[in-house]
Design a protein that fits this description.
Elements lengths: L1 E2 L2 H13 L4 H9 E6 L6 E3 L2 H11 L10 E7 L4 E5 L4 E4 L8 E5 L2 H15 L1
Length: about 120
Amino acid sequence: MALATDDSHQATSALVDLTPIPSDLTTLYWVISEASLPDVDNGYFIHSPATVAEHFREYGPAPIDGEWIALVFASDGGGHLFAIGDSGQIWKSATASWFNDFDVAAASLQEFLEQLGGRIINQL
């Protein structure tokens, strides 16, 4: 895990300028800039705000019905993507594709992080 720095704060501000993002994700990025957990299940990776902005510019928002905008902010070692919608829900891609179906993975970013914490504890 990498703690937030001045550079990641600037990248977060640039991401906010690029597109509206849920406040929970902004708050997360003010504390950590990214996380790499390759040994948890098949791996979990929270992308840096700069990476999220780069992917948004390249691919646009994740195509999730009912969400005005959904930002891909994380992935797992199998290539599945995690997106946070403007509703605050966390979505997981059904396949290792940016443009396929997404299913609800957690009701909120907090719940997603708690689930991830549970996976870490289960592996200890």
